[in-house]
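This protein record is not my work; I was only asked to verify it. Take the sequence as given and treat only the tokens as open to question. I have pasted the whole thing underneath without changing anything:
***
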Amino acid sequence: MSSPSKRKAPIFSTSPQSMGSEPPQSFQQLFRRETISPSLASEIDVVLDDGSLDRRRVSLTSLNEAQEEWTPLLAGKYHPLYLEHRSPATSDSSSSGDDDDSSSDESDRQSVTNTTKRWWKAVAHGVFENECWQRVLKCSFAYFIASLFTFVPVLNAFIGHNRTSSHLVATATVFFNPAKTLGGMVEAAAYGWGYVLFALTICLGSMVTTDYFVDRNLYQVAHAMSLLVWLAGASWTISFFKAHWNKPPVATASSLCFIIIFIIVVREGSANKGDFDLTRIREISSAVATGTVITVLCCLIFWPRSAVTKLRKDIDSTLVSYRILLKLLTKTFLLDNDLPEFEANRDLQSAIELHRASFTALQKSLQEAKLEMYFRRDSHTRIDKYEEIIGCMHRLAQYVGGLRSSCGLQFEHISRTKPNRRAMSASLHKSGKRSHSADGGTWNVRAGFHRRRLQDEMRRQKTMILDNNLAGRTREQHQEPLGGASLIEFIHTIRQPLKSLAFTCKRTIYQLQEDFGATYTARKTIPRQKLKSNMIKAIDLFEAAERKAVARLYRGHHVGIISDSSSSTFVPSEDTLLVYFFLFNMLEFARELMQLVEAVDHLSHAHDEPSLSRWHISFSGETRNKREEKVRFIPNERHMHDTLHTPIPKTPWRHTLWRVWMFAQRLRQQKVRYATKAMVSAILLATPAFLESTGAWFREWRMEWALITLMVVMTPTVGGTNLVAIYRIFSTILGVSAATIFYRVFPANIYVLPVLTWLFSIPNFWVILNHKHGKFGQFTLLAYNLVMLNKYNDRETNRIEVEDLALQRFIAIMVGVVVGFISTSYFWPYEARVELRKGLSDLLIQLGWVYRRLVSTYSAYDGFSVPEGRLVPLTHAQEKEIAKQSFMDLELDIQRKLTELSGLLAQAPNEFRLKGPFPTEKYQQMLRSCRNIADKFLAMRTVIFKDAWIENVHQDFILPVSRQRREMAGNILLYFYLLASALRLKTPLPPQLPPARAAWKTLLQALKELPIGKSKHLLENDHVYMFYYAYVTMMEDVIRELDKLGDNMKDLFGSLIPHREWDLLFDTP
């Protein structure tokens, strides 16, 4: 392909601002390109789709791509580019005169008809073709069909003329809503029926023992067995696994299990006079089974959702987020003109949220897809391939974090309710780039310290160049790089090669999206092997351009050394090193993207593999070794073995005591305490049912509902319990009120009440599926369900008025809420704010442990640290891969820990504090600092696993400054330990924290004074030694985040001596 002329060269652009508008001023105009956007300043070799090279001008945005850039990540909202302006419909008939009234009337009627048709078509399309409303409607259909087993006598006869427990058919559809994917429904049904069978076993056991002891007139023993053995054991077991697994399907199955147990064991068992009657068990079992079958059928019939399809859509959406963030970070790094495009951009906030959630959301989708694949023919061979893809996606997410960190951007989530949300740091272009989040908050994209310093340095160099221009330097003199303007020159040199690589990455992501369901008709599909070869070419081109840019940087720096006699080192400035570090992370992102292409190619050929290949791989020695080599971290190990405090037992008696002590330690776990609290609370609340004086009252007021409410309200955290209690109270009021009004207006109406029930369920299911307070809709439906359906079953006998039934329901709910609140808040309280503080302490210890492993890895010359006891010796490459995978597992675990701590932080404000409101903002800042440190460690890890590190850097840079490195590493580890201890103890911090910054400056100065830093040999291996200089420079950001953590903790817990008083103690007169 011939290279086009410079005037007519095609432009790969990505921003609407670049089309037909003048670009804003920027520093690139210093290079006398006043009329051309800096994004289009020069041409560079670009890898085309067919693998050929062509010199093009490259930008990361274009109008066509802008339309494709938007993906409906948030359902129910549409981009303005998708709106069509249509002219009113006109008649096809020929025109007529003004006096033709009949034609005019006919035309008007036709216009009204066409408008009505278009309106109904738009409504039908918006409701029936929208996935959100499809899920709502299929849930409402299942609930409506289930309620007919109460309203319709023929259907009620199908479940044995059950007028006592027929409401459980509808209750089952509320718990097992059919909006799940097929894989999610398999999981929910498995847990549900497992728990139902467990509940039936408990009920049968209780009935057998009750019948046995009542026949022998041992009523107290029979009741004690039911209460203290069957009820207590079942409550403890269910609550323990509810806290242990902590999964929504388990919580749903637990609630249904409690309903069965409390009805049979407590209500019916307390009134059992020795009759072994299975009628109630059979009625409840048939009702639950019918509700489950209805749910599954609705899931399969009405708009079925495949878990595999959902996984592929999630992968596609995550790829979109990577593409948007890649564009943002690249353009921010280059200070592009059209960067303001990201202001108030909903796509940006979606990309940030998807990136944050990808560490856990993709894994959840993968688990559901696995359950579905097991029931699909020839699909089980693809499970390992999807796992490989998700692993690549996780690593790409980590590399995006590394890019953001090295670029100097910070993503902050600011709540709208905060009065000080406007008091934010200076951001890019003198204003924060905000985007509104779905939960009402605001995402603020702000510049970090290094980014602001980089911008200041750019302004300084810009002023220097302008001064030189005013002093009369000729254009020819500008061709030689200025010693003091090396940063501008370096960025300008690498600008187009970087955009070329980013462009190829974006094209590759587009093609990968096509593999996962996205369609772009304007593009042709490229074979995956061609994609991989294109990525290899793009990486090679960029590496070559990078070496030239670095060499030019050193030559420019050499000019500065000659002109400045006070400078005698060839080491570049810190700002230049940070720029290089971004380029290094960009290369790592591109290499991992190439691995993703290869993994997608493996998936496409999975159907060609033998069906036993998966089992062969699963039981191979390689996979077992991977499991064995996974490093596990134990946070805050307070009982380290082989110490004076915890010695290793050496006698049989001491071994026995050791095992007893270990068992006692496990009993102190939170999930054991939660299960014990739930068990005791259930026993105390169920005791009145087994007493002669209160048994009749218990059954008359249906206090088994209080027991059910108790178990639903009691969540592992105090904040969660408080929130659920509020939902339960107000949703119960709404549900019973609606049921009472409907029944009073249409008493026992077999035609109207089912329709009203269905209509009432629609908004509730919408809340359940689409609102963050989905429990409110679920509790409302359950309250409505009990009052409406139970009263309809009582329509003939009319033993109780609907108002009294609603009152009973409300009183029982209040009793359960009060007991659950007291039990959770005052007996072994598991407070979210306390667990947040402890979890943050554990996270700091874990980050310190990761840093210790980083130091150990780059300090070792003879190889990498791997687990011992292997029978087969490993090669250097295998040791390197194992150590690298170990770091990735740790980094992924840290990201998931951060997500978990963010959930605890969201619950902390719901807990009542007499001392005042919880300092949410400070803890948000500390979590943000921890996330930044984790991103820095990821970027540093990618550096130390380069082959050039071991071959060159260790001898020339590591060993000569061992003393300074030890001082800095020791201070940083001490910093982590001190901050983690402060969070645990809540005691004031010392006025002076470890001097990590001073140690870092000493190390940096020692590196600059090394002989290698003053010799021209540094210029010969510039691409090697830049690794270590960039690594050490990034440590400043880690220390800065540690200083921020220390300042925040001083604000939270105080200081032993105020800083001002401490300085006065050492001021010299």
In short: Residues 703 and 812 are 6 Å apart (CA to CA). Strands lie at 11-12, 44-47, 53-58, 409-414, 433-436, 442-447.
